[in-house]
Amino acid sequence: MYDTIIIGGGPAGLSAGIYAARGNLNTLILEPGLAGGQMVNTLHVSNYPGVLPEDTGMALGQRMGEQAESFGAKIEYLEALEIQDHGDKKIVVTDDGNLETKTVIIATGAKPRPLGAKGEAEFAGKGVSYCATCDGTFYQDGDVFIIGGGDSAVEEALYMARIARKIYIVHRRDELRAEAKYAERAMNHEKIEILWNTELREIKGEKFASSVVLENNKTGEITEIKAEDKVPFGIFLYVGNTPQTQFLGDLLELNKGYIPVDGNQQTSVPGIFAAGDIVDKRVRQVVNAASEGAMAALASERYIGDLDAKKK
Ligand code: NAP
Predict the structure, then answer these.
(1) How far is CA 32 from CA 79, 80, 95, 141, in A?
(2) Is 174 annotated as catalytic?
(3) How far is CA 121 from the centre of its chain?
(4) β-strands 80-86, 89-94: how paired?
(5) What's the whole-model pTM score?
(6) 3-class secondary structure, 218
(7) What digits encode the pLDDT tens for the residues 178-209?
(8) Cα–Cα distance measured from residue 135 to residue 188, given in angstroms and rounded to the nearest whole number
């Protein structure tokens, strides 16, 4: 039986792994993708303390994984399908069998949310993307539309400004949600034009996306912008994220899909903790994901100590 199974290998899960393994807990991290979680889609995590300027999100994730393993945590490329609570014992059902553990730390994060515009699903991977740092190079000297006005949209617009010839930020309001410093940089960038009060209605094309239909939600005016001949044409969507809690069913309390926790990262089920973007909270940054992972691991250690004391 494991002491703790950590579900998710983003900064929250890996930090939990580092602390749990250093605390001598028999620790397993389940991550069916790359270590680093959403961070691997970010070019630079420039606001994480101590990060090197040349560090990519992917490199940072990989190093966090190696650090957890160096303390004895095991990382398995398995997907958790269900958690069963049997009091002092939890069972994590995976795509490769059942695993027993005393505690679980849920750090499954969130996934980019589709907007639901007409043509979005049809042209996904054919001009429509959710990750500029992954797919940006396909749009060298092209025209690019970034949908959304949050940190992700603005940071990726600034990233694409180094690659594409023209970037439109399509935002439904007249004010960006992104941090002021980056918002200003985007508003003053010569290659970036912000289409305020504007919503993406449709993506059209044949094999690949080649036009967008936009609506001004104040005036109702509809505009179609078409790709120019031989100029790459891309649409990147950054309209928020969906929490990855579907696999939990009704095991624990959720708020709009996110997990409420107490000051020790404890969920509504004793012995099950949560950390990172999956938690019901306001600020979703790498730095607080890592901190919550550490707190969840330490709380898990205390919980196991109490279980052992009860048995004596
Ligand atoms: P977000 O902050 O939720 O922003 C989503 C954006 O999409 C908002 O501007 C929102 O518009 C817009 N939007 C949502 N639904 C829409 C719809 N149906 N139609 C049109 N527009 C829609 O998401 P995010 O930018 O991915 O950021 C998620 C979290 O990660 C945030 O806490 C953010 O601070 C953090 N983050 C931090 C960094 C960093 O610090 N380096 C980088 C990336 C993300 P409204 O503004 O009108 O609501």
Answers:
(1) 5, 9, 10, 35
(2) no
(3) 20
(4) antiparallel
(5) 0.78
(6) coil
(7) 999 999 999 999 999 999 999 999 999 999 99
(8) 25
Indicate whether residue 285 lines ligand 1 (CB < 6 A): yes
**Pairing, β 2-7 against β 27-30:** parallel
Distance CA 281, CA 277 (A): 8
Pocket test residue of 40, 151, 283 for ligand 1, highest count of atoms within 8 A of CB: 151
Task: Give yes or no for residue 270 CB within 6 A of ligand 1.
Answer: no
134 catalytic? Reply is yes
Is 291 in a helix, a strand, or coil? Answer: helix
Task: Report whether residue 198 contacts ligand 1, using a CB cutoff of 6 Å.
Answer: no
Q: For a substitution probing ligand 1, which of 38, 152, 277, 284 has the most ligand atoms within 8 Å of its CB?
A: 152
> What's the pLDDT score for residue 134?
74
**Cα(35)–Cα(33) distance, rounded to whole angstroms?**
7
Cα of 306 vs centre of ligand 1, distance in Å, is: 40
Concatenated DSSP letters for 118-175? BTTTTTBTTTEES-HHHHGGGGTT-EEEEE--SHHHHHHHHHHTTT-SEEEEE-SSSS
Q: Which residues contact 95 (CB under 8 A, 6 or more apart)?
A: 32, 78, 79, 81
